[in-house]
Inverse folding.
């Protein structure tokens, strides 16, 4: 029995990958990435004494901008646009310090550091004044839900069609492959959009989370992100023949996004040896957009980078996956059979 | 050439699934392709319906909208009701709502599924599901109906009902082509093609195939020609090219016997090409 089990296991590459890769992934993530302490806080120093303050500020605060002409309005704008997590405005006593509360752990570290200065500074946490974890988590969870539906549920839906043989039935019908693909994917797009709406509204209602930005920017970001995760779902369906395989494979795509997208552990706290993985994950960019729009009211032009990366990912992943799926609807040509046999 | 394939060869890497196979599906007939697993039955049907492009040879088939196809696995959507399955497939073939409803009523009535129209496909018995899948393949009144092992795993009563449906369909002018592993279904068809390892072993009207089988078959307790003997019931059957001098108990052979004889003869004296009788 034991030998038979080992033999079966050794031939199930996905399970072997789970047994081997998962412990390594968890070890690396929890060993390196599971760190809530932020060592570097991006800081802007503004106002007439900006250069003087800059020279006295501790190393934890990494100066990203010094502007002697800047004022409170400049400070808020820098935080909204995520140029800095902390903006110090000099010129008055006490010195005004604005902290971006949407970067929760960074904000906590900054508040703690400035509180030690007592009355010398007037600290104001913007966008999440009570530093509520739920305010930061819910925008990220919206992305996680989209990932779950887009990747896992879509992959299962498509693989089911293949597993029970009905994909074969669809392939011989007098309809275009694009019709089949569109017909299969559209319901998941609609369902995920509906879920996103429900979770966003529910999150705002239950946790009093504000929606400070433009809903259209948020919707655009969600739609592009949805194309990426739907693409991943379609891709998984093309490399899986059973629902079990699809679930196993989706696990490899979803788990790193939960752990490394900045949803749980702040990106700034993850060492670069692991953090580069975070920048390959679509959820990282959607979280930037959702937190930015909902909490900081970030405008579209300040979120150009996550939008650009997500758009490139959407085009590459979605188009690639759909082309792969299309191949399974096309007749098996001699060339394709030769390739498959090789 | 009417509907069919001509000198078709299909390879999967080093494996030749079909080796220069020709076949015609005549209108108004049930033609059966009989063979074991890996004989090439499904590949042949998939080639005919356009799912497999052959390495060489010619395929003549009506357009996709004139073909009804039931794949070997599945063919109906388990989470849809019988009526929803019919409506979906009818819609895919471009039938109007009224036309689809009329056709659905007629087919379900014929198949004895009228009372089950609101049941989920997953809740149907194997036999009922097979009949539903037949109805789905027939909803658009195709010229060519292609069924891949529709009766495998189906109880004998349902198989009889399925055959009634197939016969009625053929009688209405449709060319019915089905793959099966059951020899008796081959015998019931108008034209049988026996495939073995991608080659045609036997073909023709079943009675003619049986009649044309060379030699004689005897029952025996103790085989004297092991390479031409096979178990049958409590004893053995043995093939001889001419009756042996002391032979007893010659038997009336059926399609199964002549297929076994053809396979054994092929193994004893491999044909350089083809292998058809």
């Amino acid at each position: 029995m034991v030998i038979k089990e080992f033999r079966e296991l050794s031939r199930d590459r996905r399970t072997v990958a789970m047994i081997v890769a998962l412990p390594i992934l968890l070890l690396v993530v929890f060993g390196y990435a599971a760190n809530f302490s932020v060592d570097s806080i991006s800081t802007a120093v503004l106002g007439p004494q900006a250069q003087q303050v800059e020279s006295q500020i501790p190393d934890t605060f990494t100066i990203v901008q010094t502007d002697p002409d800047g004022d409170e309005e400049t400070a808020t704008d820098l935080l909204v646009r995520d140029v800095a997590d902390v903006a110090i405005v000099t010129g008055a006593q006490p010195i005004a310090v604005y902290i971006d509360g949407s970067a929760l752990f960074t904000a906590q570290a900054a508040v703690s550091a400035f509180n030690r200065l007592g009355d010398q500074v007037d600290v104001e946490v913007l966008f999440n004044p009570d530093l509520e974890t739920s305010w930061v988590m819910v925008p990220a969870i919206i992305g996680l839900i989209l990932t779950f539906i887009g990747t896992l549920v879509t992959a299962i839906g498509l693989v089911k069609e293949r597993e029970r043989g009905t994909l074969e039935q669809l392939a011989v019908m007098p309809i275009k492959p694009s019709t089949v693909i569109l017909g299969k994917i559209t319901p998941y797009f609609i369902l995920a959009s509906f879920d996103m709406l429900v979770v966003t509204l529910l999150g705002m209602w239950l946790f009093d989370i504000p929606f400070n930005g433009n809903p259209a920017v948020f919707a655009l970001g969600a739609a592009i992100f949805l194309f990426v995760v739907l693409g991943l779902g379609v891709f998984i369906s093309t490399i899986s023949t059973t629902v079990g395989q699809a679930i196993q494979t989706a696990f490899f795509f979803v788990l790193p996004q939960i752990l490394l997208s900045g949803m749980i552990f702040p990106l700034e706290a993850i060492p670069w040896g692991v953090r580069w993985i975070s920048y390959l994950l679509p959820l990282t960019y959607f979280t930037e957009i959702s937190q930015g729009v909902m909490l900081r009211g970030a405008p579209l032009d300040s979120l150009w980078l996550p939008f650009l990366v997500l758009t490139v990912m959407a085009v590459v992943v979605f188009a690639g996956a759909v082309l792969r799926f299309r191949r399974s609807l096309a007749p098996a040509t001699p060339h394709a059979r030769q390739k498959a046999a090789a | 050439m009417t509907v069919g394939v001509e000198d078709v060869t299909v390879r999967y890497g080093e494996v030749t699934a079909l080796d220069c196979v020709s076949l015609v599906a005549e209108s108004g007939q049930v033609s059966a392709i009989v063979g074991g697993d890996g004989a090439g039955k499904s590949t042949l049907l998939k080639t005919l319906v356009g799912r497999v492009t052959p390495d060489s040879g010619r395929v003549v088939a009506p357009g996709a909208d004139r073909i009804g196809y039931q794949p070997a696995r599945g063919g109906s959507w388990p989470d849809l009701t019988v009526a929803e399955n019919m409506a979906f497939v009818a819609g895919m073939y471009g039938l109007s709502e009224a036309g689809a409803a009329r056709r659905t009523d007629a087919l379900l009535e014929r198949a004895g599924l009228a009372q089950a129209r609101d049941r989920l496909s997953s809740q149907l018995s194997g036999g009922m599901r097979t009949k539903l899948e037949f109805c789905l393949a027939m909803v658009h009144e195709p010229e060519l109906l292609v069924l891949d092992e529709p009766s495998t795993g189906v109880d004998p009563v349902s198989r009889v009902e399925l055959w009634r449906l197939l016969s009625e369909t053929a009688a209405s002018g449709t060319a019915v082509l089905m793959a099966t592993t059951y020899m008796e279904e081959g015998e019931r068809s108008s034209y049988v093609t026996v495939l073995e390892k991608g080659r045609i072993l036997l073909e023709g009207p079943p009675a003619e195939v049986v009649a044309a089988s060379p030699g004689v078959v005897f029952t025996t307790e103790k085989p004297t020609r092991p390479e031409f003997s096979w178990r049958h019931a409590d004893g053995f059957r043995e093939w001889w090219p001419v009756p042996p001098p002391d032979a007893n108990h010659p038997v009336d052979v059926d399609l199964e016997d002549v297929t076994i004889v053809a396979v054994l003869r092929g193994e004893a004296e491999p044909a350089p090409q083809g292998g058809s009788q």
User: Anything to note?
Assistant: Residues 80 and 119 of chain A are 26 Å apart (CA to CA). The radius of gyration of chain A is 24 Å. The mean pLDDT of chain A is 90. Chain A is about 65% helix and 10% strand.
